[in-house]
Structures are given as C-alpha cells and as structure tokens.
Specification:
Radius of gyration: 15 Å
Structural class: alpha+beta
CATH class: Alpha Beta
Distance between the termini: 26 Å
Largest sheet: 6 strands, antiparallel
Number of domains: 1
Strand content: 25-35%
CATH architecture: 2-Layer Sandwich
Number of helices: 4
Number of strands: 6
Shape: globular
Order of helices and strands: EEHEHEEHEH
CATH superfamily: BMC (bacterial microcompartment) domain
Strand order of the largest sheet: 1-2-4-5-3-6
Length: 145
Amino acid sequence: MILTDNWFTALSDNEDGTYTFISGRSNIDEFIKSGKLRERLEIVWTFKADEKGLPADDAEASLMEEVGDKLRAVMEKDKLAIVTGIYTGQGKREINFICRNINAFGERLNQTLADYPQLPIVVNAYDDPDNEEYKELLDLKGEED
C-alpha cells in the first residue's frame, strides 16, 4: 500500500459567523480496509482567534504548521498513524489521525514535542473501528464536487 499526498479542501460557515477550513485526506481506502487502523486520535490546538475564528497571530499559525508537519512525518513514516483530516476554525486546529497503536502514538508524540515549549494542545483518543469520523469527512468532499 502506498500512502499518497492527495487532499481535498472544504470551507464550513459556522452558525456564529466564523469559518472552519477543512483539509481531508483522499485515497486511503486500502489502509482503512486493512482493518489495522481502528483507533482515532485527535490533537486539538487552541489558539487566539481573529473575528473569523482563524489564527490571529502569524507566529503561532506558523508554529502550528511546523508542528503539524513534523507530527505527520513522524507518524506516517512507518504508517503507525495517518493524518485523515485537519480542521481550522473557531479558535482551534484539530488534526485527526487513524492509528494502529495508541501507546506507541503517545510515545512518539512526546518524543516529537520534547524540543518545544509546552503547547496549548489536548489529545483525545477514540475507538473507531469503522472509521466513522473519516467517513463523515468524506461526505464533505462529496458536497464540494
């Protein structure tokens, strides 16, 4: 199985007048069908938002990109976890992973973030054997076509 770098984007208008930018991973069906990625982890980074709910500080936005790119590279190098979606809006960025092993993910996450000061993140883990969150994300892709 080959992990591609194909993504789709969507924009969601929120009820409070803000926006959420959504990036979703395409072409990971084979990985999902393998049945090995049955857990979902989300990393939620809370940031100071502007009036549209997006990052107000360019330096923090750059740091979020840097950390997100680094985590993606570290987790995907051996397919321990795959980023499925990134949501940015309403004062937070949420990066969703599907994962083979939560404990290994946690160890690798801590190693990767050790060089940074404490970041405003929360990590949530879910049992998601049918990849329901990813299926919902794909529904957004259908709405954009």
